[in-house]
Amino acid sequence: MTDPKQGSIPEAEAIERAKQGDEAAFEILYHLHKRRVYSLCLRMLSNPAQAEDLAQEAFLQLFRKISTFRGESAFSTWLHRMTVNVVLMHLRKKGLPLVSLEETLETEEETPRKEFGAQDVKLTGSIDRLQLQRAIDRLPPGYKTVFVLHDVEGFEHNEIAELVGCSIGNSKSQLHKARLKLRDYLKFMRAEKAGST
Q1: Domain count, the chain
Q2: What is the domain range of residue 117?
């Protein structure tokens, strides 16, 4: 899938041109990576408006720091780490925001039921995802950060320790505790749901 703005310039060439201050090349990089950066911010923050702001901040950081990219890792990995750092700095400054569940529900389309009384598989999956998101949002800030970085984003504990500024053991401990809390939250939610039917 090629972006019309990308044309025929390969990413590596766009990176080199952007390092020299070529705005068109930087725009190519922006179009190649904007969705991934926004999605990462959204997963870490659970707030579309803040995710958009911090995605923009991540690209400002990229604009300022692209000359420091040496190609020791993939560009997407380097940008991913930079984005995670931008979000973590925001969380340290502001504390974790409370996210209204109504906000996330407003953007979803309501689909009509095909058969009255039949189980709607899509709806059931959406409810499961909402319950999981609710449970993740209830985690304490440290647990949530480590859980998202490890189980959602796929970072290793040594990378998380470096990003967050803690020991590898602390990262493992926080992840273990986050998973236990999530299990408890989800069991409670299922019991609550069963009790209300």
Answers
A1: 2
A2: 99-197
